[in-house]
Amino acid sequence: MQSSNHVLRAGVVGAGAFGRNHARVYRDLQADPSQNVEFVGIVDTDFPRAQTVANEFGTSAFRSIDELIAAGVQACSVAVPTAAHLEVARHLMQNGVDVVIEKPLATTVAEADELIAIAEQHGRVAQAGHLERFNPAVRATFPLLTKPMFFEVHRLSVFSPRSLDVDVVLDLMIHDLDIVLAFVQSPVKEVRAVGLPILSQKVDIANVRMEFESGCVANFTASRVSTERVRKLRFFQPRQYVSLDYSRQDVLVLTVDDLSPDPAGMDPFNPASVVASALPGITPFRPAVAQQEPLRAELDSFLRAVRQRSRPEVTLEDGRRVLALAMQVVEAIAEHSRRVHLAELTRTPS
Ligand SMILES: NC(=O)c1ccc[n+]([C@@H]2O[C@H](COP(=O)([O-])OP(=O)(O)OC[C@H]3O[C@@H](n4cnc5c(N)ncnc54)[C@H](O)[C@@H]3O)[C@@H](O)[C@H]2O)c1
User: Fold this and answer.
1) Whose CA is nearest to atom 20 of ligand 1?
2) How far, in Å, is the centroid of ligand 1 from the Cα of 16?
3) Which residues, 6 or more positions from 319, have their beta carbon under 8 angstroms from its beta carbon?
4) Structure confidence at residue 2 (pLDDT)
5) Model pLDDT, residue 344
6) Among 313, 292, 202, CA closest to 246
7) DSSP character for 1?
């Protein structure tokens, strides 16, 4: 058996916008001798694209996954379009390679199930690429959770002609669905949603109201046709408000101080009783957040799991669960759209 600090040979399949980021991080890991990582190469069906990224990050370009396997890759990022995740990850896992698969895990839950089965059958470490779990602001928030009851989440970005093979729910909102599922730890009871295609043929802006068995309610808005870039999650739990900014990697907690003079006599649902009491003070607190690129933290964690042959921090089952929820949102949007005859309303005049 190999020691856990042996040199690990990493690779990337997919040299597009996001695969390039994986390549940059593996280049950085290779440059740090304490990491014992060798970046063996990158594959793309568009070979010149693989060559460009390989040249930029000092690695080899390959025309096929078989060439990357022959070069000895052991741990690999799958950063091809979602529709190709299954085919690429299956090929790698069947040949003994551990994988981290970009989000969304697959285009259907059935494909996600197949990925889970293949990983199990071949004894592979397989991680779902939900990188916001590794955002230091999210990590700093986990210890603060008591009983979150109300979430307000916004993920807005300006339009760019990328990831248009999936709608905004699978492209952007899925990040927040994954985080809220991890925070709430309760089954989803009801999903109501509205969504519209604006600049593409798929839903570009969506709003969802989700209720959990715990009674928690979460409102999500995701847009890829905004004029501004916002990535914020705010929630309320008893006597606390928590505001998390994914982009700034910043968390603000406002806690209501002990009520005085007679908190027992105060009924928060009776305004007269609240006014009769002294108004509470509010204490702000910013937990320490050690800034780090989430993708670097994600790949560090993946390679650690590969070395230790341990369960990854974000499993394929996590990826499947949030994919199933995202599909439920997509269906709720379609149901709303049918109900209000949206196709007729949005049809461009001929
Ligand atoms: N985690 C995040 O925040 C985040 C952000 C953006 C994209 N992504 C995900 O990353 C993945 C890639 O997205 P992107 O924006 O880089 O896409 P992209 O279209 O820019 O790049 C995909 C690349 O894969 C190549 N390719 C396609 N099929 C292939 C195959 N079978 N074998 C080898 N190469 C193949 C294409 O030629 C292209 O170069 C998607 O799953 C996307 O959802 C994740």
Assistant:
1) 16
2) 5
3) 101, 103, 104, 105, 106, 112, 128, 129, 130
4) 46
5) 74
6) 292
7) -
For residue 18, which atom of ligand 1 is closest to its CA? 16
- Residue 36: phi and psi, rounded to 5, are 55, 45
CB of residue 157 inside a 6 A radius of ligand 1:
no
* Whether residue 43 has its Cβ less than 6 Å from ligand 1: yes
CATH class of 134-290+327-336: alpha beta
Would you say 211 and 190 are in contact if contact means Cβ atoms under 8 Å apart?
A: yes
Q: For residue 45, which amino acid is it?
A: T
* In the chain, where the domains are located: 8-129+294-314, 134-290+327-336
Residue type, 157: S
Centre of ligand 1 to C-alpha 27, Å, is 19
pLDDT given for residue 349 in this prediction: 55
Which residue has the CA at smallest separation from atom 5 of ligand 1? Answer: 18
Closest C-alpha to ligand 1, atom 19: 16
Query: Considering only CA atoms, which residue is closest to atom 30 of ligand 1?
Result: 45
The response to whether residue 176 sits with its C-beta less than 6 Å from ligand 1 reads no
- Ligand 1 pocket, 162 CB below 6 A? yes
What global pTM score does this model have? 0.92
How confident is the chain (350 residues) per 10-residue block, as mean pLDDT? 74 97 98 96 98 98 98 98 97 98 97 98 98 98 98 95 83 97 98 95 96 98 96 97 98 85 56 55 94 97 98 98 98 95 69
CB of 88 within 6 A of ligand 1: the answer is yes
Tell me phi and psi for residue 71, to 5 degrees: -80, -5
Is CATH 3.40.50.720 the classification given to domain 8-129+294-314?
Answer: yes
pLDDT of residue 166: 82
